[in-house]
Specification:
Blueprint (H helix, E strand, L loop, with lengths): L1 E6 L2 E4 L4 E9 L4 E9 L6 E6 L5 E3 L7 E6 L4 E6 L8 E9 L5 E2 L3 E6 L1
Parallel strand pairs: 2-11
Antiparallel strand pairs: 1-3, 3-8, 4-5, 4-9, 5-6, 7-8, 9-10, 9-11
């Protein structure tokens, strides 16, 4: 089993910044892919950004140039720095990881609210 602890969500004004973090612990040897997804009520969960163990990243078009995902493999932790936040970024953000057991694990979600 893998446990994920997310932190960093909250309320911010439009144009502001937030940093989310997600730390993984439990029974695994290595974590391959790690990423952040988000979901608003009535819509499907969507990929925000992900990062391979090599450091290769991928971003949703809507956040390119504003968000940055990084990871610390020694700490099994990922970070999502969100700049120039917009009201449409308001969502519950979920951490997702793929360890060496081949199963995806999800965090409990952290609310990000951007006021206009």
């Amino acid at each position: 089993q893998v446990q994920l602890v997310e932190s960093g969500g909250g309320l911010v004004q439009s144009g502001g910044s937030l940093i989310l973090s997600c730390a993984a612990s439990g029974r695994f040897n290595i974590i391959y892919g790690m990423g952040w997804y988000r979901q608003v009520p009535g819509k499907q969960r969507e990929l925000v950004a992900d990062i391979a163990r090599s450091g290769m990243t991928d971003y949703a078009d809507s956040v390119k140039g504003r968000f940055s995902i990084t990871r610390d493999n020694a700490k099994n932790t990922i970070y999502l720095r969100m700049n120039s936040l917009k009201p449409e970024d308001t969502a519950v953000y979920y951490c997702n990881v793929y360890p060496d057991d081949g199963r995806p694990y999800w965090g409990q979600g952290t609310q990000v609210t951007v006021s206009s």
